[in-house]
Amino acid sequence: MTQPATRKHRIGGATRLFGIVGNPVTQVKTPQLMNALFEAGGIDAVCLPFDVPVNVFEPAVAGLQALGNVDGLVVTVPHKVRAMSMVDEVSDTARRVGAINVMRERPDGTWFGDMFDGAGLVLGLMRIGFEVRGKHVKQLGAGGAGAAVAHALAEAGAASIALADPQRKLPEQLAARLNRFYPDCPASVDLDPANLAGIDLLVNCSPVGMRPGDGMPAAFGAFSPALQVVDIIMTPAETPLLEHARQCGCRATNGRPMIEGQLAAFATFFGIDMPASFSCFSDEPA
Amino acid sequence: MTQPATRKHRIGGATRLFGIVGNPVTQVKTPQLMNALFEAGGIDAVCLPFDVPVNVFEPAVAGLQALGNVDGLVVTVPHKVRAMSMVDEVSDTARRVGAINVMRERPDGTWFGDMFDGAGLVLGLMRIGFEVRGKHVKQLGAGGAGAAVAHALAEAGAASIALADPQRKLPEQLAARLNRFYPDCPASVDLDPANLAGIDLLVNCSPVGMRPGDGMPAAFGAFSPALQVVDIIMTPAETPLLEHARQCGCRATNGRPMIEGQLAAFATFFGIDMPASFSCFSDEPA
């Protein structure tokens, strides 16, 4: 969808600053997405990439927080866990996941952190008509992104979550943590990644499918057409898993709804009015 | 002069960052000017306002310097003197003036500071056809901006500088400092601000003329048409002093050539290619 032409954004002395803190940052897309949002909303703010090397993380982030016109920061790899120590308070979600990917300054000058990696996926799924509540989930991959996604699915009312990851310790630890916080959503380690009996939603949070030549993350047979499939991978846009899902007649999506949902979550978190017609993918064909 | 249409600048992960450090920053024009320069040159860089409160100056600037994609900072009121302590080395000019208004990171990671407040005026004067070398100067105002301007005029080969300022200590200290560094350009305190005998260039660095109802900064009689008059005030664009100068047939200019010259100096300092056709006032009528 193409956005209506908007005034060219002019950075001036009164422009408010947001940024994404990572290392490296050359690959990030958050500035482009948030700046499109600011332009669409006629908001005098800009989002920058802030390249924060690991060895200067604390002083660099403290310096940014000390600026009078920085209102919020998005946090990406490899700083999400360490960023917990740079805020005064975190959300329950962030505390459970053990990491934040966003922080904002409150009116009293303190900083508040939250974690939207998973909430973005849940919001994105809602947006494409899939309601997580009551659904049985199978999730491949229990690393950093997987932990955030599983927590968000449990928080959104999933009926159960089966976790598969070749690094056995990861799903065990994640399942234990999920079961502590979400007793109504039993989490288990699934040693047969291809088993989809009773599953409504299949989410791939593993990196399998990113590299050329990758196959599917498990040796799946035919999917039931009722299965909803999400692969959070963005590049390539169509992984072997997604191709297989579509061939089986399933609803299938890549990480796009997750990113859209995440941007919407950022907008709410930062107090930015998001025009109803706005799409964060305005520059790309749908 | 209108610039040719350029691609819309898109901030992305690889965009390099520059900023102006001040408090407040809402009034600054450096981001607009430098961003117009970046756009005209097709350079993937952006200049931001960084609001640095006085009580967090050192950590905030250290934090910005620690970022991997911040290449340089412009420094404005009230941080120009204190910024000296945030760089590893300064130019001779900065050392003499005792302040910097610009710093850049060198390839080895150290920071280098310089002071262009005055050099901007000298460059700007050259650009409008006035050569400082050999000229006798009268300068009104010996505060922060005045100190930088006087040093630059002396450095550029002025024949003499007469300083007038109602705060008697300021011109005395500045004259002593100038005489120490530039023995070939005698600097003196002039107790009669309206006396222009033998003067080629009259520069107003005092704030008189900014406020509505202000008159001229001294009770001048008719100027010789040979006198070059500069008022570094930018708002209003035409002060009572400039009006008087034009009525007397003098060449007279406001702070515009100084800002243009300063932008050119920044570009050189930061290693930015400045298109020959570029004007930093492209959005305003000439």
From TrEMBL, chains A, B:
Coiled coil regions, renumbered to chain: none
InterPro entries per the UniProt record, alphabetical: Aminoacid_DH-like_N_sf (IPR046346), NAD(P)-bd_dom_sf (IPR036291), Shikimate_DH-bd_N (IPR013708), Shikimate_DH_fam (IPR022893)
Top-level taxonomic group: Bacteria
GO MF terms held by the record: NADP binding; shikimate 3-dehydrogenase (NADP+) activity
Pathway(s) where this gene product acts: Metabolic intermediate biosynthesis; chorismate biosynthesis; chorismate from D-erythrose 4-phosphate and phosphoenolpyruvate: step 4/7
SUPFAM superfamilies with a match to the protein in the record: Aminoacid dehydrogenase-like, N-terminal domain, NAD(P)-binding Rossmann-fold domains
Gene Ontology CC terms: cytosol
Record keywords, A-Z: Amino-acid biosynthesis, Aromatic amino acid biosynthesis, Oxidoreductase
GO biological process: aromatic amino acid family biosynthetic process; chorismate biosynthetic process; shikimate metabolic process
Residues covered by the Shikimate dehydrogenase substrate binding N-terminal domain: 20-102
PANTHER family reported for this sequence: BIFUNCTIONAL 3-DEHYDROQUINATE DEHYDRATASE_SHIKIMATE DEHYDROGENASE, CHLOROPLASTIC, SHIKIMATE DEHYDROGENASE
Protein name, UniProt field: Shikimate 5-dehydrogenase
Lineage: Bacteria, Pseudomonadati, Pseudomonadota, Betaproteobacteria, Burkholderiales
